[in-house]
Amino acid sequence: MRIYTRTGDEGETSVIGGRVSKDDLQVETYGTIDELNCYVGQAASLMEGEVFADLRGDLIEIMHELFDCGSDLAFVKLSESKYKVRAEMVERLEQWIDKYLEETPELERFILPGGTLLSSTLHVCRTVCRRAERRVVTLGRHKEINPEVRRYLNRLSDYFFVAARTANVRGGVPDIEYVRSKKVFGNKK
C-alpha cells in the first residue's frame, strides 16, 4: 500500500462527505486534536512501571476517544446517530479527576508546569487541549457540531491538570507554585 495519494497536492483534503481546503477551520480543528493525541501518546510512553499503570490505561483510552472527537468533527453534515462522543465519556473523566484529586495536596496558589518530565508533558497536553477546545468553539459558530466534543475537551483539560499533579506526587516531586500571587485557593473538598 502506498502512503501517498497525491490527491492533496493542490491544497485540498477529504473529509467525510466531501473535500475542503487544507486550511479550512474544520481541518484545523480536528488537526489540533490530532496534535493533542500525539502529546498524549508521548505522555503515555513516559509512564513506566506499575505506579503509573492506571494513568497509562486512562491515556490509551483517551487516545481512542480523541480519534472519536476528530471523527465527529470530520463530517460535512452531521447526524446525531453518527456521533461517537457521548455524555458518559465526560462523566467518566469527572470520576477519574475526582479519584486522582484525592492523591494530590490541596492547592493554595497557581502552579507552574513542571516537576517531573511526565508532569510537564501532561501540562503540554492540557494546554494543547485548551487550544483544541477553542478551535471547537469557533467551529461550532460556523457549523453544527456534536456539543459533547466541546464538553469532553473542556473536562479533558481538567483531567490533564490533575494527572500532571498526580504524576508529580507519584514521582516524589512537589508542584512548582507560582509564588508571585497570594494564596487563591481554599479547601479542595
Structural summary, described in words:
It is a single chain. The chain has about 190 residues and is mostly helical. It has a single domain (about 10-175), classed as Up-down Bundle (Hypothetical Protein Ta1238, Chain: A). It has five helices and four strands. The model has no long low-confidence stretch (mean pLDDT about 90). It is an enzyme of class 2 (transferase). Keywords: ATP-binding, Cobalamin biosynthesis, Nucleotide-binding, Transferase.
- CATH third-tier fold name: Hypothetical Protein Ta1238, Chain: A
Q: What proportion of the residues form beta strands (DSSP E)?
A: 5-15%
Shape: elongated
CATH class, please? Mainly Alpha
Helix and strand pattern: EEHHHEHHE
Task: Name the structural class.
Answer: mainly alpha
- CATH homologous superfamily identity: Cobalamin adenosyltransferase-like
Give the termini distance in whole angstroms: 54 Å
The count of domains is: 1
Largest sheet: 2 strands, antiparallel
Cα Rg:
18 Å
Total count of helical runs of at least 4 residues: 5
CATH architecture annotation: Up-down Bundle
- Strand order in the sheet with the most strands: 1-2
Number of strands: 4
Low-pLDDT regions: none
Helix percent band: 55-70%
Mean pLDDT: 91
